[in-house]
Structure formats: structure tokens, C-alpha cells
Amino acid sequence: MLKILPDPSSIAEYVSAILVAKIQAKPDVVLGLATGGTMEPIYAQFVAEARQSKLNVSRLTSFNLDEYVGLSADHPKSYSAYMQEHLFRFLEFDASRLHLPDGLAHDLAAHCKIYANKLLACGGIDLQLLGVGGNGHIGFNEPGTAFDCPCHVVELAEQTRIDNSRFFAKGKTVPVSAITMGMAEIMQAREILLVATGESKAQIVADWYQQDVTEAIPFTVLKRHPRARIILDEAAASLLPDDALQQRMVANG
Ligand code: GLP
Hints:
The protein is of the alpha/beta class.
């Protein structure tokens, strides 16, 4: 389903309400969490609503999508630090239930297997949050990744490193590789919310809409998922053709 909302703050309200309702309905829910600029207003809104409704988050489990190889959990630019900064520090989570890949793991391949197995042992993901890279990547599954690929180590695409350099200080280089949950784990999630905001995502969103499912644009695989919602703001939807906008009227009711 395609959902188009005016701006990032209305998306934050929409997604946050879904998260709150999910946790209320199933306190031991397993969430798949994402990082990136797109998620920041969503986490801020969720924290505000969770506080207001005195939501109990202590029984939920989370698995983050990815982490840079070579960055420790307390490195300020690690995704672990991002999660602390934008979400984990604000609410009473049970830290033992919050999972991220370890960017310093000695044996990275073995660590990927352990991470994927831990996720399986927790019953898989109930609700997966996703952003999308400018080249269509989800998690850090870059264009060309096989759809059945499990959690793995990936060499980051040049465009991804350029896009993400805005999060790093001048002169600091973006790591060359990362651990990412695979397309396989993402597609096994029972429900998926992919969010794209801003003009910089408009072209890849239009490509996604117009093309068949292809490994060249990883997030096209979501067309095969029975419960995936693609949530866009007007800017990210600005290059969609007219038929998509008609669908928007149906989807938005
Ligand atoms: C990063 C992350 C993705 C994220 C994407 C979009 O590289 N690995 O999980 O969805 O890029 O990021 P942003 O929201 O900052 O545009």
C-alpha cells in the first residue's frame, strides 16, 4: 500500500501511532529498527507519545538493521550511538532485549550468523521500520544483493558513502563496510513500514514505482510483501506518475 502524507511531521505522527498501538496490543512485540535522518522525527514523536501514554516498553525486543564495521558501540557515529541518542535513552527499555550488530566483532561472518539466529530464536520480526537509500538500498543491502541473502557483511556503494558523509565530521571518512540484516530477514518480517521523505528520495521512489521487482533497486522487493506500506511525504512523491497519485487518494481514504 502506498500512503502519501504532507510532510515528515505528519509521517512521524502516523508511524508513531502505529508503533504505540502495536506495543499496547503486544507488549513483547519484536521490532526491526532503522537509523538515518528519516527516522529522527519518528523516534522523537514516538518518545513523546510513549511518555504521554505511559507506554510500557520494557518487554519489547528490537533488532537494528545494520552497523558500520570498525565502529565501536560507543563511537559517536555508530548506529548503536544513534539509537541511544534518538530513542533508547529516553524510555525504560530492557537493554538486554535491544540488539544491534557488533561493528567490532572479531569474526564478522560468524557474528552475522549469530545475529540472524538470535532473531530467529526471538520468533522473527513483527514490525520492521525501513528507510531507503538514494540508490534504493534497504538496511545496507546495496543494489545487486540477492533477495534470499541473509545477514551479511557488505562493502558500501560509493553513493551510500557520499550520502552518509553528512553525518560524519569534515575530514572523517565513512566506513567502507557494514554488517546488515539481509533481504531474507527483512522480507520475513510480518509487517513492514518503509518511509521516504524529501526531494532527494523522489527519483528512486519514482523508479521503484515504475519498475518491476529487480535486484538493481533493492526496495522493489517490497512489492512482493503482503503487508508492506510505503509511506511518502509530498516531496518524496513529487516525481510519481498520475496513476500513483490516484492510488494515493484511495490509500489515504
Ligand atoms: C542508511 C541506512 C539505512 C537508511 C538509509 C537512509 O545508509 N543504512 O538503513 O534507511 O541510509 O538514510 P536517511 O534516512 O538518512 O536518508
